[in-house]
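Protocol step 4 of 6.
Sequence for Glycosyltransferase (Citrobacter arsenatis) entered exactly as in the expression construct, tag removed. Do not edit the line below.
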Amino acid sequence: MNHSIAIILSVYNSEKPDYLHQSLSSLFSQTMKADIYLYIDGRVNKSLESVIESFEAEPNFYVVRGEENKGLAFALNTLIDVALIRGYRYIARMDTDDVSRLNRIEIQFRFMEERPDIDVLGGYCHEFGSEYALELKKVPLEHDDLKRYSIIRCPFIHPTVMFRSSVFKDGIRYPLDTKFTEDMALWFCLLENGYRFHNIPEVLLDYRLNDSTFSRRRGIGKAISEFSVRFKYMFKLKEASFKRFIILIIKFFFHVLPLFLIRYAYKRHR
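Step 5 output, structure tokens:
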């Protein structure tokens, strides 16, 4: 067991076997080896089981099964608990439909070793799989910029993130009381508790876009959840302004637009 880095990801019955295979293959091919933890969130079909079984001979692959589907936040929290018990120094995120660049883990590990002041580290990505994909998706780099940016946009591309495991030792976890905004709520919780953010100006991941990507961005539940979380932390983090409030209102209505308008906005206004 490599006690430096645990990579955590979760798979669900609706996911595509080919995507899972590509995702896992990119992790097992890393220039720096890490232990890979896959949470199976409820029962999955035979095709997905077959992909998982094809990797089970790998010595650094660990599978945790959940009998019932309990959602991404529960799955990730379960794996974080396992990683803490087993003494990993870093915990990296990944999704089962994305593809990590082969030196991603090594780049992040070396940066974190050189910068003990940074607690959460992400980077850029390349999008693919849709006509709306960006060749290069950027996010701000420095902590103060990311703090301000977080009020209206996510400060990280979630599956690129690597955490210093110490951020979770005081009980911080992905919140379970939000709807489709567990990563956003976690970023705010970490900012509130004084943890430091940073992004690397390098592409760490190929991020897959498809129809479900856009579907997840709409709906009244998503709109209410995101607005309430962002509005609350706009004041908690002392980043309130009239301009940011107006942007939050616009983003609220964006989430309830018809799907074709969301796609158009996604292409034209990012």
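Step 6, annotate. The beta strands are 5-11, 35-41, 61-66, 90-93, 99-100, 120-128, 162-164, 197-208.
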